[in-house]
Amino acid sequence: MSTPMRTRASRAVAAAAAASLLLPAAAAVAAPQQGPGPSSEHHGGTYLAATLAGRATLSADYLAEGPPSGAAASPGNGRQGPWDGQVIPGFSAMVDNHDGTFWAQPDNGFGAKGNSADFLLRNYLVRPQWNTGSKGSGAIKVLDFVEYNDRNDVLDFDIVNEDTDARLLTGADFDIESLVRAADGTFWVGEEFGPFLLHFDEDGTLLEAPYEFPDGKSPGNPYLEPGEQPNVGSSRGFEAMASSGRYLYPVVEGALADDADVRRRWIYQFDTRRGEYTGKRWAYQTDQQVNVIGDAFATGRDTMLLIERDDFEGDQAVTKRVYEIDLGRKDRDGFVKKELVVDALRIANPRGIDKGEGYGLGETFSLPVQSFETVLFVDRDTLLIGNDNNYPGNDARVTGTPDDTEIALVDLRKKRVTDDGVTVVGHRGASGYRPEHTLAAYETAINQCADYIEPDVVSTKDGVLVARHENEISGTTDVAAHPEFADRRTTKTIDGTSITGWFTEDFTLAELRTLRAKERLPQVRPQNVAFDGLYLVPTLDEVLDLARNSRTCDGAPVGVYPETKHPTYFDSIGLSLEEPLVRELGLGGFDRADAPVIVQSFEVGNLQDLDDMTDVRLGQLISSSGAPYDFVADGDPRTYADMVTKSGLREIASYADGIGAEKNVLIPRKADGTLGAPSAVIRDAHRVGLEVHTWTFRRENQFMSAEFRSSTDPNGIGDLVAEIRVFMKAGLDGFFTDNPDLGVAAVS
């Protein structure tokens, strides 16, 4: 993002505020000081860097005054209700009062109607005492609260406190999630049991009947007719809501049940003057199908921030992001354009705020909580983000200890994009730390400062490209544990080799989505087994979207380095890889010469075909033995060794932009397993205009040359940084590594 975008957004917010009856939280006083505006361009080579400016917490075990709560709550992390007071289970939404205080609204308490009848729905007035690294206690002070109630008997269905004068509302009546304050001081609340829009006065009294969602009901809706099928998933209603002028923009948290596109989330428009939905709605696409929308905040008349998150916590977390969208701009698929504002899993913490106090509290600050549900601008350069801690179940920070309620200030400053000239490729993602070819592995690689992520692509039965190391998936998924697919196990000949197992081309994408990824090398990487069974097999489309919506640590767009696997074989069964690959690149906006994309293959013919089909860069993969399979299939006697001669490299340069050579091709090993002298391949390739990348650097001893091993244990950790530096000294342009953090350290 760049300065022109931010200036445009500030002007839009100022204009909106001047004419509004209903204001987004920060706009009420500080409208001209709003945040960055959306754009797909990055003028002047700049981006917004996120830095932790302050943090404040409220103890998970804090109890506000009131009757006991949590009698039916699920126990967790050593806590068992009922508790002698009202639990505050985090904040699902906040409003800035611009005097150092905030209105902070928890949700329905303990997650369901059946266990939240003793939880009173409230809106708390709080004052954070920010820990900035040099001052501030870091505590959140609870000053006051308003209790939501129906003392005017507006509701026409029974509530828990039906027969009391105060008619206080509870978590069994509504699941409140989002919050907007109007210019007249009243509160608009989005909830999930309806889902409904609720309008309360400044003292918390319900002013009018709930406004019903026009496109369906949730399972908790009190008006659900017998036999009527809910269209909104349980707890997937109005988690998020923004406002601009007279309009509210509630966002459905998950996909609607009848929507064929499981990545689509709908943004609606509600007119507060007329008290009705306008009929307008906009489609937003999540990075992957399991992601949900956590909060929204208006930055202009047509622009807003959205939290997109997954349901994982701690080191399992993949997506905890804030995007900015523009309702006036759509992408090629008809979704609103979105641009990353901050990845909440990667925020610089140079002041060391709360460093060492839990997972994600270090030199890099991370908000790895399951329910990242609060975002707003407190001034033009500073975001506030926060969590719902689902007390007592979440323990993202310290295993076995319930998460505190926490809010953080994130400073956004313009920085210039830099380039160190070396391409670090996350091999199958950061596969040394997460199961390969999962979005978790790719996100980890990005957060470890990789320049590119590498998906190997194969096809499903219905022609969808997915990321797997091989089309045989018994080693990378739990397919063998699915009895419904037992009859799919078969033996095939792939590139001349007989292989028995389960193959992607025998599964539709829908069937493949029922599987979960697992670690391919559990003996080598036992720590990765902890992530088995968590993650979906991603499509190439999802990998491209992740890259397109991400930034490297240097601020550049994240690149994608797809490898077409077994193209001759897939051609032979009528599932050619090249056409759908080029189509996906085009739909994602990557099909151009300057795109951060390199398509690679061990075969030659398909790269030559791709050279005529696309303008993106191409890379010829080179092994230290054997030959391209299409050569073998055609009876061509040339080998990989022939391809790295001077004449062979000239031939490669006629259709490709670089080579990706096995390490031993560039620096052969001597008889004792140590590195010898560099070959002439790097020099000769450079002379014909080819870049040279190599594969694959891994930190385990068995994958390293002898002088860099730490012991005779094949799975012990060697000196990968030192090994990479030898190759860099030989003139290498880039490399693939399972451990991007160590790769970046080697070139720093």
Automatic annotation (TrEMBL):
Its EC number is 3.1.4.46. Keywords: Glycerol metabolism, Hydrolase, Signal. Pfam families: GDPD, Phytase-like. Residues 66-88 are annotated as: Disordered. Residues 422-747 form the GP-PDE domain. CDD domains: GDPD_ScGlpQ1_like. Residues 66-76 have a biased composition (Low complexity). Transmembrane segments: none annotated. It catalyses: a sn-glycero-3-phosphodiester + H2O = an alcohol + sn-glycerol 3-phosphate + H(+). Residues 1-30 form the signal peptide. It comes from the Bacteria. Belongs to the glycerophosphoryl diester phosphodiesterase family. This is glycerophosphodiester phosphodiesterase. The lineage of its organism: Bacteria, Bacillati, Actinomycetota, Actinomycetes, Micrococcales.
